[in-house]
Design a protein that fits this description.
Low-confidence stretches: 1-7, 10-14
Organism: Ursus maritimus (Polar bear)
Subcellular location: Cytoplasm
Protein name: Inactive ubiquitin thioesterase OTULINL
Largest sheet: 6 strands, mixed
Family: Belongs to the peptidase C65 family. Otulin subfamily.
Structural class: alpha+beta
Strand content: 5-15%
Radius of gyration: 44 Å
Order of helices and strands: HHEHHEHHHHHHHHHEEEE
Region (Disordered): 1-24
Number of strands: 6
Length: 358
């Protein structure tokens, strides 16, 4: 009976006993669930942030890589452009060894190649020319070669230019000597300028006077060389200087022609000039010869005589294609006054000229 009576109490305790732990288990489960959800949320947030940061980093790397490539291409293009532009505009190139230049330009065993190699060897061994400066091949290259030598050597003005203001010469031809035909003067490829010719010629001659004065006043050879490299890389300035030289030649021809009309003795080279049908007077000389210089042709031999006379310099030219003949070495003019300075050029065909370096 006692055992039976205790059975219901025991069963009650058994039913009541597990209730307390069930409440704690629910709390633990809830806490774990909340913690798990918080961790899950934090992980998703962190994962999203990491993915976003990684995406931003990848995008940034791709952007900077592309920008680096674009910048590299841009810099490479500009460097190449500037190099090409500088090389294209450098009309008198740096010195190169004479015999190396000859070996590069005159390969093979043709009669002409053999003649040229012998001529270059003659320049090297007998005339002591060690290097050459190549001059841009166009219809101004004779004028370019001469003017480069004048500026690089720092030669002074011709005596007659010191006595006259050469800037006023265009107006003098028109108003003092009645040469209204000068309005038909051509600036290289520019065929006709009309009433603007005087202003353009004045600017060209003024530029020549300014540059010549500046170069002749520089005593340091290396500084003159640096300035020559700058000047002879500027196409627009160059062409103005060459047109000024052409006009100086025209002015001298006109002056001598006026002297001839008064029966004064004139140099023989001008007698030869005026004896030609195509240059019997200054107008025909300008129209038939001078206007074409810089456009369709360069200077002829008689023009070289006039240029040397006008600038009061002795232009010695080594004509390589005339090697082993009396015309291998010529001077323009042929009998200049002893006090005139001398410059040297070399040519392979009487059309294009280069600058020898002793």
């Amino acid at each position: 009976m006692a055992a039976r009576r205790s059975a219901p109490g025991a069963r009650a305790r058994e039913r009541e006993g597990p209730r307390a732990p069930a409440a704690g288990s629910d709390q633990v489960h809830s806490w774990m669930l909340v913690t798990s959800q918080a961790l899950g949320t934090a992980w998703r947030i962190a994962k999203g942030s990491v993915m976003l940061a990684a995406s931003c980093l990848v995008a940034s790397l791709c952007y900077f890589r592309r920008m680096h490539c674009d910048l590299g291409h841009w810099l490479k293009w500009w460097i190449g452009y500037l190099q090409r532009k500088f090389k294209r505009n450098l009309s008198v190139e740096a010195e190169v060894d004479l015999l190396s230049y000859c070996a590069r330009e005159w390969k093979g065993e043709t009669p002409r190649a053999k003649l040229m190699r012998k001529a270059y060897e003659e320049l090297f061994w007998r005339h002591h020319i060690k290097c050459v400066r190549q001059v841009k091949r166009d219809n101004y290259d004779a004028l370019r070669s001469v003017l480069f030598q004048i500026f690089s050597q720092g030669l002074s003005f011709p005596s007659w230019m010191k006595e006259k203001d050469i800037v006023k010469l265009p107006e003098k031809l028109l108003f003092s000597q009645g040469c209204n035909w000068i309005q038909q003067y051509s600036f290289g490829p520019e065929k006709y300028t009309g009433s603007n010719v005087f202003g353009k010629l004045r600017k060209c001659v003024e530029l020549l006077k300014t540059q010549w004065t500046e170069f002749s006043g520089i005593k340091d050879y290396h500084k003159r060389g640096s300035m020559c490299n700058i000047l002879f890389s500027d196409v627009l300035l160059e062409y103005k200087l060459y047109e000024a030289l052409k006009f100086i030649m025209l002015y001298q021809v006109t002056e001598v022609y006026e002297q001839m009309k008064t029966n004064k003795v004139i140099p023989s080279l001008f007698q030869l000039l005026f004896s030609r049908e195509t240059s019997s007077d200054p107008l025909s000389f300008m129209m038939n010869h001078l206007n074409s210089v810089g456009d369709t042709c360069g200077l002829e031999q008689i023009d070289m005589f006039i240029l040397g006379h006008s600038l009061e310099i002795k232009i010695k030219v080594f004509r390589l294609f005339k090697f082993n003949s009396r015309d291998f070495e010529v001077c323009y003019p042929d009998l200049p006054p002893r006090e005139w300075p001398e410059i040297s050029l070399l040519t392979e065909n009487d059309r294009h000229y280069h600058v020898p370096v002793f």
